[in-house]
Amino acid sequence: MIKMPKKGNLAAVDGSMMRNYLEFGDFMSAAKVFFVGFTRNYLLWNSFLEEFASFGGDSHDILEVFKELQNKGVEFDSKALTVVLKVCLALMDLWFGMKVHACLIKRGFHVDVHLSCALINLYEKCWGIDWANQVFDETPLQEDFLWNTIVMVNLRSERWENALELFGRMQSASAKATDGIIVKLLQACGKLRAFNEGKQIHGAVFDSTEDRDLSSWNSIISSYAVNGYLNDARDIFLQMNLQRAGFKPDSCSITSALQAVIELGYSMWGRSEEALAVINRIKSLGYTPNVVSWTAMISGCCQNENYMDALQFFSQMQEENVKPNSTTICSLLGACAGPSLLKKGEEIHCFSMRHGFVDDIYIATALIDMYSKGGKLEVAHEVFRNIKEKTLPCWNCMMMGYAIYGRGEEVFTLFENMCKTGIRPDAITFTALLSGCKNSCLVMEGWNYFDSMKKDYNISPTIEHYSCMVDLLGKAGFLDEALDFINAMPIKADASIWGALLAACRIHKDIKLAEIAARNLFRLEPYNSANYMLLMNIYSIFQRWDDVERLRESMTAMGVKISNVWSWTQVKQTIHVFSTEGNPHPEEGEIYFELYQLVSEIRKLGYVPDINCVHQNIDDKDKEKVLLSHTEKLAMTYGLMKVKDGSPIRVVKNTRICQDCHTAAKYISLARNRDIFLRDGGRFHHFMNGECSCNDRW
DNA sequence: CTAGGGTTAG
């Protein structure tokens, strides 16, 4: 038998029944308690709305209850109205929110901070940032909280300038910015390249008597670092504890500082040993890098294409008993993918499996990239097949994998399958598609995808896409069309565009167009020796030795250094590098002996040395000798000598493979019945039975 | 509304 409560307790009973219902998730019963209830206590009506919302009541229901209460003539307090405005935001019901707003103004309601905040959020989401800013300007009482809100909202809407301006105003109003705002503002400065504003924020933080947390300082360090003021970044790091007594950097500051330091090491000395030396100094100050710090170092090295140091840091990290996480693995796989370190990549793949990193989509994507760049497309595809929920980057990586092999048809099939799963392509997808076209010489398909990206997917082509098209048209022999295409481009042609055209002129032996392309290219990249070599190559084909000499002289006059050319191949655990600089390989004699044998073998099969590849006006016999010294030939030969029969030879070269080496490799694959994988500057060559997967266009 | 540092594809 339920005891009837005494009159004075009615409200309390309603309240507890309501809570019971709410706790069981029965919102509408809870509401009924109210509608049929005994009491008309306004405070309770209001708190009901709040509780309803905080127990996760359905937004539509809350709004219904609110309207019902409104009809009953209930007066609302600011908390209840805030709840209603938040509900409006959730439902994107700007119309009702505005009615509430109008009601507030009409009744001269005291708009408190939370209410303004809710209004600002509602207007920003439903109508745009300008109206949110207007609400802010019309709010009479601008407390700290509201300042922070309006700055945050502007940052969220990517109104960086607005946010910075508001920060200035809030300084004048002596409002205290939260640490989060400081962090976000500094990030905005980074995006804007607004270094002076960043410095002002630093000054404001430094001058104020407010205590800032580590994150603020850390982002200050980062903001100096990303703007290239690495010395300042380092000094702030080292002086942090001086600025506030007892204030010690944490692992976060170390990470920020380390990034600065790594870049400092590279930019000042161009070497990672010095970066490591500074890291050691940091350690001697008593700070221990954590997994994030190490990962930052590793990815920093990768960004500077210093893959060996990245791998070195990895072993050092393990020596110091810091466990890698999935982010570290991703960076490391990137370190292997860049220079095609297949064996190392396989090792890290095993490592990650042993340590339980399975089903990580980032790792899987990095694996696809690593295996395709390492020359094992089948394994890359296997990894791809095993991914249950394929994301856009997975598809993109896989497509790019097939593209660099020149397997355009497979790229198209992947694209169609991807679209069938409902994933929308992005700009990178089209780069993969167009790369597939250019490496397979599929001109019609290239045009179709190029037209389709804007028309069907509203993706504007970027310089990468234009570059693919120029490369595609040029390689296919449509040189004039390629030039027209460049002239019709809405954006300014960069070095990749003219470089693609120049390379095409080499294939199709068009010296007039080559000179036009080269003129533009040299203006954009005056110190890139590869460009000069390409033109020199074309002059050599036409035996124009005067021009070759002139070019060589202007290179000397300009101080263009011929960049180091190297090829390498891996035998067991060792990487053997063949380079135009530095010491020769210790087994050089044996290698040349084998190479002579090889050349006489393939001559019988029809190989003729392509002496046009030698840009010196010397005797033809001497030219043939020069050809033999090409690093890719040495690496291939060494592979043949050391890698057991039947296994493919894998060679990586940092620049484009030369035509003679390309021809020779085809014959070698035939003579010795070997698969030869050669990754050069731009793509993959798979030599097999006297043919190359690139169809002789690269 | 406050918490921010290191991950994948050209």
Plain-language structure description:
The longest helix is centred in the middle third of the chain and has 19 residues, at 251-269. The protein contains 36 helices and six strands. It has 698 residues and is mainly α. It starts with 9 loop residues before the first helix and ends in a 6-residue tail after the last strand. Among the domains are: 390-461, no CATH class; 482-558, Alpha Horseshoe (Serine Threonine Protein Phosphatase 5, Tetratricopeptide repeat); 566-692, no CATH class. β5 and β6 form a beta hairpin. α7 packs parallel to α9 (144-156), α28 runs antiparallel to α29 and α30 packs antiparallel against α31. Strands 2-1-3-4-5-6 form a six-stranded mixed beta sheet, with helices on one face. The model is unreliable at 1-10 (pLDDT under 50). The chain is elongated. The chain binds one DNA strand of 10 nucleotides through α7, α9, α11, α13 and α15.
List low-pLDDT spans: 1-10
Structural class: mainly alpha
Q: Per the principal axes of the C-alpha atoms, what is the gross shape? A: elongated
**What multimeric state do the chains show?**
single chain
Distance between the termini: 91 Å
- SS element count, helices: 36
Neighbour order of strands in the largest sheet: 2-1-3-4-5-6
Report the helical percentage.
55-70%
Report the count of strand segments. 6
Largest sheet: 6 strands, mixed
Give the overall average pLDDT: 84
Question: How much is the radius of gyration in Å?
Answer: 33 Å
Strand content: under 5%
Organism: Cajanus cajan (Pigeon pea)
GO cellular component, one term: mitochondrion
GO biological process, one term: RNA modification
PPR repeats: 213-249, 290-324, 391-425
